[in-house]
Known about the structure:
The protein has one domain. It is about 70% helix and about 0% strand. It has eight helices and no strands. Helix 4 (about 45-60) packs parallel to helix 6 (about 120-130). It starts with a helix and ends in a 7-residue tail after the last helix. The relative contact order is 0.17.
Amino acid sequence: xxxxxxxxxxxxxxxxxxxxxxxxxxxxxxxxxxxxxxxxxxxxxxxxxxxxxxxxxxxxxxxxxxxxxxxxxxxxxxxxxxxxxxxxxxxxxxxxxxxxxxxxxxxxxxxxxxxxxxxxxxxxxxxxxxxxxxxxxxxxxxxxxxxxxxxxxxxxxxxxxxxxxxxxxxxxxxxxxxxxxxxxxxxxxxxxxxxxxxxxxxxxxxx
Length: 207
């Protein structure tokens, strides 16, 4: 599990490094998009949970069990990753790149300028990307798109000087790790639910 999580986080990190190493002669509209408050606000953990949760509620009106399962896992994973992230960044107390004063590591702190490690945006997006089933065909492409999205969000956070590259890497690993844990817990929970459903249909003399 640790090896798988580390590899996924490393892939996102390497993609981010490549993006950082490119020439500064990128299109202005791309720069504006990466540093926009719209992208930043849409990818906070609460926003990601709200988006996936709303999508899950809408999907319940359709006959798409695979989509429903993905959206439910995404919502759970992003929620847990967001909670863990909020606790860790306040416990670690690392100074953000844009902060002008203060120690690099302050320790437990509520001040936002010391909430750099890990990146909540990266962990939330990685939690959703990690919830995509990795099989083949379209799902494999969706998984690759999820990794790319994680790298783009990481690029955005570093461009806004909200995080160091290492913050993004740790946040991504956290998100992928939570998604992995949720996927592993899914089968036992489904078995228990099926068992309860079966027992509820048994005649009274067998209960």
